[in-house]
């Protein structure tokens, strides 16, 4: 097969949730570069406005937010070919299981598990009808390497997302829709850079030493550094492309070797 890497997604409509910053922004830019029409969602407008990306403001942690996105995308663009469920995160306090309330658990599950489920449910019927489509779930290595002190609900939600993604793939692969999971490790986003600077200042160490302390807390990263957002985006760009046409139902870990077991 011959592929035009620079224009291989021409004619495709793609949605990247949480696409205004970090890995989400890098993914949106990567799909745009490949020729796709790209829609991004987040609660707040991107700091850097671009006419090339279509922005929808929505809170996907709420059912009405996901329905708003589904309705607006289908009304404006008619269909969706690529869905990258990238939005996620944890805002729960540290301190282990005892400090976590029902609200902490419910809010985390809504954002990291139920939002992707609802968006899939909204867009899958059209993909199945056309016999074509790709869904990417962005999970985390915490699904198998949980940090119980601070992100227990997040890790549990991502583990659920892994299981759901595999099950969904088994159901819709015979109907022409590919479903894949990408589990990044630590990514050097702008927020991470600010976080390291705060550690550096409060602990009177260099930024490099601060970064090493975080990597040590993760059990070490054999590659010696966090991933760059563009590296994660490049993997996504491949997985949604025709070059990956036989790949489905699989988890792809991009963590620099953080997880030491098979």
UniProtKB/TrEMBL annotation:
GO terms for molecular function: oxidoreductase activity, acting on the CH-OH group of donors, NAD or NADP as acceptor. It comes from the Bacteria. Keywords: Oxidoreductase. The keyword Oxidoreductase applies. It holds the Pfam family adh_short_C2. InterPro entries: NAD(P)-bd_dom_sf, Sc_DH/Rdtase_CS, SDR_fam. Belongs to the short-chain dehydrogenases/reductases (SDR) family. This is Short-chain dehydrogenase. It comes from Hymenobacter crusticola.
